[in-house]
Amino acid sequence: MAEITRPLMPADETPDGPAATRGPAEPLWRDALGRCLRSLRLERGEILTETARRAGVSPQYLSEMERGVKEPSSEMIAAVAGALDVTLADLTLAVATSLLTAPPASAPTGPTCQVAYALAA
Fold first, then answer.
1. Are 81 and 88 in contact (CB under 8 A)?
2. What pairs with residue 13 in β-bridges?
3. Distant-in-sequence, close-in-space partners of 1: CB < 8 Å, separation ≥ 6
């Protein structure tokens, strides 16, 4: 029996049309977290190895967190926050605030998103 196959679509297209018709992707928490961690570390004038040593993580892992490559556990986030002398609550609030102040084109709006951001804070 002959098998019926669908033609493959390019990665940037969906059955509804090209990706360009969809809005920009929502900013990721891990990216905002990384930017915030890097900013806090640089404000302190520290290099990766100093902060990583105090947090008990490798410099490579901290670098991956800062670049938004890793999806760190809450324990890892708390360890790095402690090494930067900020509370987990303050760090979470800073990340949530950065997501709220993202340019409108890159952050979705509406009641659902506003509630999600409020819960994240």
1. yes
2. 18
3. none
